[in-house]
Design goal:
The protein is an all-alpha fold. The protein has helices at residues 18-58, 64-110, 119-123, 128-151, 156-182, 186-213. The protein starts with 17 loop residues before the first helix and ends with a helix.
Length: 216
């Protein structure tokens, strides 16, 4: 007697760890994207702050040497400030996570649970030195843009507009990259970054020009 095909039970294929692998990959990508986005933001800070500083000094001092020295001082000071701030912040986070791990181990020991090891947990802890170095490097990369734009142009007005053009192009790139990493609308995010950078440079230039014209 022939069996009904509809009654034949098809065995369910065994579950594979593909989903787990995919989840791990997505998690790793998420962590990498956070680091990259932080690096983009650090580079943007270096770009805008150094360019605004050079524009402000350039409003009252037209000498190329003065603008370059001020920009370089801004690069060094900003990179050190970013590195120290990031080191202190990440080290505080490290202390909190280590303390939490110790509390969890103590609680597990009290109830008789034996943990196999903490190698994976140690690998996932934040690294203050790495974070500080990455933050300082990102800031320095952004700050180099206006410095390079002004370094080889002796004529004052052309130098100012070269800084504005170079910074605007970098702002567009950083805004697009930050939006892509953060998965936000690219056009709106890019416009926001560019307009913010323009405002910072314009306000610094205008206020310094005003104060310089009054002889203060």
């Amino acid at each position: 007697m022939a069996s009904n095909p509809s009654q034949i039970l098809h065995p369910t294929p065994p579950q594979t760890p593909a989903l787990d692998v995919e989840t791990d990959k997505e998690f790793d990508y998420s962590k990498r994207s956070q680091w990259l986005r932080a690096a983009v933001l650090g580079a943007n800070d270096g770009l805008v702050s150094t360019a605004s500083l050079m524009m402000g000094v350039g409003a009252v001092k037209q000498a190329i040497k003065t603008m370059i020295l001020v920009g370089f001082a801004g690069l060094v000071a900003g990179a050190c400030s970013m590195a120290i701030g990031e080191f202190v912040s990440v080290y505080s986070q490290l202390d909190i996570e280590v303390a939490q791990m110790k509390r969890e181990k103590k609680n597990a020991a009290e109830i008789g649970v034996v943990e196999e090891g903490d190698d994976g947990e140690s690998d996932g802890l934040p690294n203050p030195v790495q974070a500080a170095a990455a933050s300082a490097l990102a800031f320095s990369i952004g700050a180099m843009v206006p410095l390079l734009a002004a370094s080889f142009i002796g004529e004052y007005k052309l130098r100012i507009w070269s800084i504005v053009a170079a910074v605007s192009g970098a702002l567009v790139a950083f805004g697009w990259l930050g939006a892509a990493l953060g998965r936000t609308p690219v056009v709106r995010s890019t416009v926001r970054v560019v307009v913010g950078g323009w405002l910072a440079m314009a306000i610094t230039f205008g206020l310094t020009k005003l104060i310089g014209s009054r002889g203060l």
